[in-house]
Amino acid sequence: xxxxxxxxxxxxxxxxxxxxxxxxxxxxxxxxxxxxxxxxxxxxxxxxxxxxxxxxxxxxxxxxxxxxxxxxxxxxxxxxxxxxxxxxxxxxxxxxxxxxxxxxxxxxxxxxxxxxxxxxxxxxxxxxxxxxxxxxxxxxxxxxxxxxxxxxxxxxxxxxxxxxxxxxxxxxxxxxxxxxxxxxxxxxxxxxxxxxxxxxxxxxxxxxxxxxxxxxxxxxxxxxxxxxxxxxxxxxxxxxxxxxxxxxxxxxxxxxxxxxxxxxxxxxxxxxxxxxxxxxxxxxxxxxxxxxxxxxxxxxxxxxxxxxxxxxxxxxxxxxxxxxxxxxxxxxxxxxxxxxxxxxxxxxxxxxxxxxxxxxxxxxxxxxxxxx
Length: 372
Known about the structure:
Oligomer: single chain
CATH superfamily of the largest domain: DNA methylase specificity domains
CATH topology of the largest domain: Adenine-n6-DNA-methyltransferase TaqI, Chain A, domain 2
Distance between the termini: 21 Å
Number of helices: 8
Largest sheet: 5 strands, mixed
């Protein structure tokens, strides 16, 4: 093969498609962990399979996986040994011609291109042939390793910024919990209300996909889905007149379904779909206070534990949510808590700006080194 030649990826990789294990063997405690599409990025799974299986489907830490439905994510498996379920595939490069880390850095951009041109009925599907047909320019193995090493270092810096943001979030939650107190024991003796008396939960609306466009346009509004709080990669827009549920940047939004279920979100605006619901103050409670209140483990963990499981999804039990007892401090003390949190949030915002800058630098470096 000539150096830096444009070749078909399928000639340099093996693809193992996951097995359709019988769902009768699925459970949450016994057997072997099972990797489903939703587990690829997190490297964690709550599903186990108890039954016979072929050893070829046993995935090891560091194996390169691709989700074949939805967002077409690629990621190294970060968990313990687990079984490869259907609609997830393992990609193994030929070590004589293709470096694994080089492939890792190359692949997501190409998967995103396929995703953008794939028609959708209910969910987008990726075929093995589409992966095999990807064109890749292969320099020498030595050069591939050099490029991958540079990108690995740049990515490590980016990941440290992401970790700093997570630590800031942990500190925010801990500060709120310290100032507010335990809602079960109510040590500050705040007046107690039912959550449904002070917060209104309103579910989203699902317009037909025939109304969707994927570029901003006058007369259209963004239709926000759960995934949009992490990335603008798949921004979707609908006609303004079709927007039945509207929310603003400071509104508190809840992921109704998972995993992970009951994410507490904010920071975007637009119309929201059925997978989200808005938590609005009824009286004597600030939006910012609601945002941190719902993240307290005394509420959050109970909601997650009691989520209904259907077709592999979890759903928020709204009746349970409305019946929680909530000790409610006066507005002046809520404002005092939020003022303290605002100082930490400002620090977090600086890290996020730095991360965005690093993201842009990384993409530029990747484009220059890999010829995107």
